[in-house]
Amino acid sequence: MRKYAAIALGLMFVLSLGGCGEGERTISVEQETSVVQEISASREAAPEQETSLTAAESDETSQEVQEIPELAVRREENVPPENMTLYSSCPFSFDNEEWQLCLYVQADMVIDGSLAMDDRCGFMIRAERGDSAYTLFEDTVQLGVPAGDVWMDLENRLRIAIRDVRSARYQVTEYVYDGEADAFYGQRVVDQDGVNYIGSVGE
Predict the structure, then answer these.
(1) Half-sphere exposure of 108 (CA within 13 A, CB side)
(2) pTM assigned to the model
(3) Per-residue DSSP letter, 83
(4) Three-class SS string for 8-57?
(5) Backbone angles phi, psi at 146, to 5 degrees
(6) 108-111 long-range contacts, Cβ below 8 Å, gap at least 24?
(7) Among 22, 46, 180, 187, whose Cα sits 20 to 30 Å from the Cα of 32?
(8) What ranges does the record give for the region Disordered, renumbered to this chain (predicted)?
(9) Which of 3-12, 109-118, 162-171, 175-184 has the lowest mean pLDDT?
């Protein structure tokens, strides 16, 4: 009897050890599966991060492209424009040279020094220096008079803003002078067509 009891106890002990081994193996397999899933998830996330970086770099590139000046005004010989007369000017000094910002109008639109406003009139705005001229505006304007402002910025660069204001347009183009290229480079900072311009004060 004791012999059978000892055999039964031995079998139970062996079975219990086998059960513990299966439990440990199950836990080990589950851990390995979890690690594999984490690695797969990180690999899937990597292309998304690369795509995100590529999109950010693309945005920076597009911003750089937008910052490139739209307009370039090169030097030309300073000769009086045909069929036009000087209506007003603003003399100034820059880089030890004498300049002036000039507004020209159609010769037949100036009577006794005054501008005879008509429905349409030709205008030209030029920056002039010695024998050099830079035409910043030239157009026929309906019900309006273009204007120009000149100033020096905080980096001692020459800037000129042209305001093209007429019955259905409000447009401002800002130019900066590049001495090395001997040219003005500009961008449209305000460009509105089809508006209803009312008027201004302070001029």
Answers:
(1) 4
(2) 0.66
(3) T
(4) HHHHHHHHHHHHHHHHHHHHHHHHHHHHHHHHHHHHHHHHHHHHHHHHHH
(5) -70, 160
(6) 110/85
(7) 46
(8) 39-65
(9) 3-12
Q: What percentage of the chain carries pLDDT values higher than 70?
A: 66
- Spell out the domain ranges in the chain: 1-68, 71-193
Q: Tell me what percent of the chain is helix, strand and coil, each rounded to the nearest 5.
A: 35, 45, 25
Place of tokens 């055999």: 7
Nearest partner of 125 among 141, 144, 102, judged by Cα = 102
Q: Are residues 197 and 169 in contact, defined by beta-carbon separation less than 8 angstroms?
A: yes
Q: What is the dihedral of CA 35, 37, 39, 42, to 10 degrees?
A: -140
Asked whether the beta carbons of 98 and 107 are under 8 A apart, the reply is: no
Tokens representing 77 are: 């010989």
| Residue from 114, 51, 66, 58 nearest 87 by CA | 114
Across the chain, which distance is largest between two alpha carbons, in Å? 143
Tokens of 12: 């139970």
What's the rounded Cα separation, in Å, for the pair 105 and 141?
Answer: 10
Please say whether the beta carbons of 158 and 176 come within 8 A: yes
157 token code pair: 């660069």
